[in-house]
């Protein structure tokens, strides 16, 4: 595991710039030179931010604030300023964006609903009833389908993005939390925290085609569509499991730190970002080609969510106890 790196400090926006350098081959955008990961800004958002998602087309970031009367902070990804706050349901957790329609989905854990936000007007246009304790959400951008994990229901609700109705309910493992979609194969991957497994949901039939054993209490999950590799953050196992999505087998296990929580992939650099939901306040960056930790960065207290804008190779990390979002650039 890489050491915490803080090579240069200078005030930028409302945060601090501090950097770590990875020498992983192929990690830099468009080259094999070393890539430097910089925390270039810190943005104050709402209280208890957790889920975060990016609309690359509009350079807009959405940070969910996990309060009883939940909200979503809308951040301009260019200026790193909050431009709007959208009221949603009770205790929202997860969020995902359909880049084709600029639609934002937010899971409301207390209400058993999903709020649908128009990303152009930043207003809630629909509220969809799903299962018990909705947690994670992911979107297939080609089919405009949203997958929602129901943590207390051992199920996944499938939402038609055109009609905003639930069209299928898929039974998965115990305590489903995270979900990610491979847009090329239209396959969804669901972490079952109680089982230590990943359910693989394939095709338009919305059936579980495989179950893969991973580490202890998997939470976050992400897909690299270029390699079809799937990464799970095993929160009690202190590891990240790497699954070959073509064979549904674990091909590597990467040791990280105390509490790997959420995870995101930059498909252009094959960098994998993993939050450490702990007082250490760190983010691990894994070289997805070597499957080793390339660098560890200092962020805010108890980092929860992470998302990546692949067009500009920028990551966004929400810190639950700080009420902030860190901006990480790959250069």
UniProtKB/TrEMBL annotation:
InterPro entries: Haem_d1_sf (IPR011048), Host-pathogen_enzymatic-act (IPR051200), WD40/YVTN_repeat-like_dom_sf (IPR015943), YNCE-like_beta-prop (IPR048433), YVTN_b-propeller_repeat (IPR011964). Residues 102-186, 188-318 form the YNCE-like beta-propeller domain. The keyword Signal applies. SUPFAM superfamilies: C-terminal (heme d1) domain of cytochrome cd1-nitrite reductase. Keywords: Signal. It comes from the Bacteria. It holds the Pfam family YNCE. NCBIfam families: beta_rpt_yvtn. This is YNCE-like beta-propeller domain-containing protein. It comes from Mycobacterium ostraviense.
């Amino acid at each position: 595991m890489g050491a915490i790196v803080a090579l240069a400090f200078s005030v930028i926006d409302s945060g601090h710039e501090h950097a770590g350098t990875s020498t992983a081959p192929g990690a830099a955008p468009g080259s094999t030179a070393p890539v430097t990961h910089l925390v270039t800004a810190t943005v104050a958002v709402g209280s208890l931010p957790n889920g975060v998602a990016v609309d690359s087309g509009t350079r807009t970031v959405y940070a969910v604030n996990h309060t009883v009367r939940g909200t979503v902070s809308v951040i301009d990804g260019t200026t790193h300023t909050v431009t709007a706050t959208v009221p949603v349901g009770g205790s929202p957790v997860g969020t995902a964006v359909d880049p084709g329609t600029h639609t934002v989905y937010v899971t409301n854990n207390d209400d058993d609903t999903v709020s649908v936000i128009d990303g152009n007007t930043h207003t809630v246009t629909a509220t969809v009833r799903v299962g018990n304790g909705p947690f994670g959400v992911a979107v297939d951008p080609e089919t405009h389908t949203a997958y929602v994990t129901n943590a207390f229901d051992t199920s996944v609700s499938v939402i038609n993005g055109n009609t905003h109705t639930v069209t299928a309910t898929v039974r998965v493992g115990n305590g489903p939390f995270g979900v990610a979609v491979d847009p090329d194969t239209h396959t969804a991957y669901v972490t079952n925290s109680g089982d230590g497994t990943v359910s693989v949901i394939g095709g338009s039939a919305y059936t579980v085609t495989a179950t893969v054993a991973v580490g202890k209490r998997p939470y976050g999950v992400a897909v690299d569509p270029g390699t079809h590799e799937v990464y799970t953050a095993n929160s009690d196992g202190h590891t990240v499991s790497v699954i070959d999505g073509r064979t549904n087998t674990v091909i590597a296990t990467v040791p990280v730190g105390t509490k790997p929580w959420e995870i995101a992939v930059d498909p252009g650099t094959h960098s994998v970002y993993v939050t450490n939901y702990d007082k250490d306040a760190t983010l691990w960056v894994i070289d997805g080609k070597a499957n080793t930790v390339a660098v560890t960065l200092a962020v805010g207290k108890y980092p929860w969510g992470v998302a990546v804008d692949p067009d500009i190779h920028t990551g966004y990390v929400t810190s639950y106890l700080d009420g902030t979002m860190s901006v990480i650039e790959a250069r």
